[in-house]
Structure to design on (287 residues):
C-alpha cells in the first residue's frame, strides 16, 4: 500500500492534538510477552518509546523477563515452579531473578534504547528503596520470596525523568518485613508506579488483542470498559483466568488516580503509537 505525501501529513496532523494533550504527562508502559522476544516487535516498541519521549511525553518502562529467568534456571538444572500463576521463588531462584531482571534484561533494554537514539537509564526496585514489599501471605499458600508491594517511593524515577532520561525499571523489591529482596509481579508493579507518579496512562502490553467476550474469537474485542461494568464481566466469565490480575491492576490504578489504563496487543507493531497518538485506539481501555 502506497502512502502519498498528503497521507503522511494527515497522520502527523491527526497526532498533533494527542501530542498537545499528553505533552509533559507521564505514560507507564509494562513491557513483556512477544513484544519483548520478537526482534521486529522489539524494534517497534523501542521506536514508539523514543518517539513519545521526543515529542515531550514522559515514558516510564517497567519490564518482566520470565522466559530469560526460565532459561537461566534450566541451565543450572533447576525446574521452574508456578503456583496460581506466580513463580515460586526460593533463595536460589531469587538469585536468578535478580541477576536476570536487574542485570541482563534491564541493561540490554537500556542499551537498545540508547543505540536507537533514546536516553535511557536502568533502575530496579531496590534503587532508592523505590519498591517496598512484604512477603505474600495468601490463604496459607507459600510462594517463597514473592512480595506484595506495600509502598512506592518514586523520587529516583522522578529525578531520572527530570534529567531527561527514560527510566527502565526491573521489578525486584526491598523487603519491609525481612532483610531480603522480593520478586514482584511486573503488571502490579507497573500499576503501583503509575499511581505513585500520577501517570496519565498505564499501558500493559500482552499477547492477545485485549479483553474478549469470547476468548476464542478475536473479533469479540471489548474496546472500552467502565469500572462499574467490571463485576458483571467477571460474573459472566468474560474476565477470567490470566486476564483477572491484569484487569485488577487497571482497576486499582484508575481508582487511585490514573486517568486511563489500556490492555494492548504487543504483537501488533507500533500498538503503543496507535493507541496514544491516533484516533483509532486499539486493545481495551479501562477507565
Amino acid at each position: 500500500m502506497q502512502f502519498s505525501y498528503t497521507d503522511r501529513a494527515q497522520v502527523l496532523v491527526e497526532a498533533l492534538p494527542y501530542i498537545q494533550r499528553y505533552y509533559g504527562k507521564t505514560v507507564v508502559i509494562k513491557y513483556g510477552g512477544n513484544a519483548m522476544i520478537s526482534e521486529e516487535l522489539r524494534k517497534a516498541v523501542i521506536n514508539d518509546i523514543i518517539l513519545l519521549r521526543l515529542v515531550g511525553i514522559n515514558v516510564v518502562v517497567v519490564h518482566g523477563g520470565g522466559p530469560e529467568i526460565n532459561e537461566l534456571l534450566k541451565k543450572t538444572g533447576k525446574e521452574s515452579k508456578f503456583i496460581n500463576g506466580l513463580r515460586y521463588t526460593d533463595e536460589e531462584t531469587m538469585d536468578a531473578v535478580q541477576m536476570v531482571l536487574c542485570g541482563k534484561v534491564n541493561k540490554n533494554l537500556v542499551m537498545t534504547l540508547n543505540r536507537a537514539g533514546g536516553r535511557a537509564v536502568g533502575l530496579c526496585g531496590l534503587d532508592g528503596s523505590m519498591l517496598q514489599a512484604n512477603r505474600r501471605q495468601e490463604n496459607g499458600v507459600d510462594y517463597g520470596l514473592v512480595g506484595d508491594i506495600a509502598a512506592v517511593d518514586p523520587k529516583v524515577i522522578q529525578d531520572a525523568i527530570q534529567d531527561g532520561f527514560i527510566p527502565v525499571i526491573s521489578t525486584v523489591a526491598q523487603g519491609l518485613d525481612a532483610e531480603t529482596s522480593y520478586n514482584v509481579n511486573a503488571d502490579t508493579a507497573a500499576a503501583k508506579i503509575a499511581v505513585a507518579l500520577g501517570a496519565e496512562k498505564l499501558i500493559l502490553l500482552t499477547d492477545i488483542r485485549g479483553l474478549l467476550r469470547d476468548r476464542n474469537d478475536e473479533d469479540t474485542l471489548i474496546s472500552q470498559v467502565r469500572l462499574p461494568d467490571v463485576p458483571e464481566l467477571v460474573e459472566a466469565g468474560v474476565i477470567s483466568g490470566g486476564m483477572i490480575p491484569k484487569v485488577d491492576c487497571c482497576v486499582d490504578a484508575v481508582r487511585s488516580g490514573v486517568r486511563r489504563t489500556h490492555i494492548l496487543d504487543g504483537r501488533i507493531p507500533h500498538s503503543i503509537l496507535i493507541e496514544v497518538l491516533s484516533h483509532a485506539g486499539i486493545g481495551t481501555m479501562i477507565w
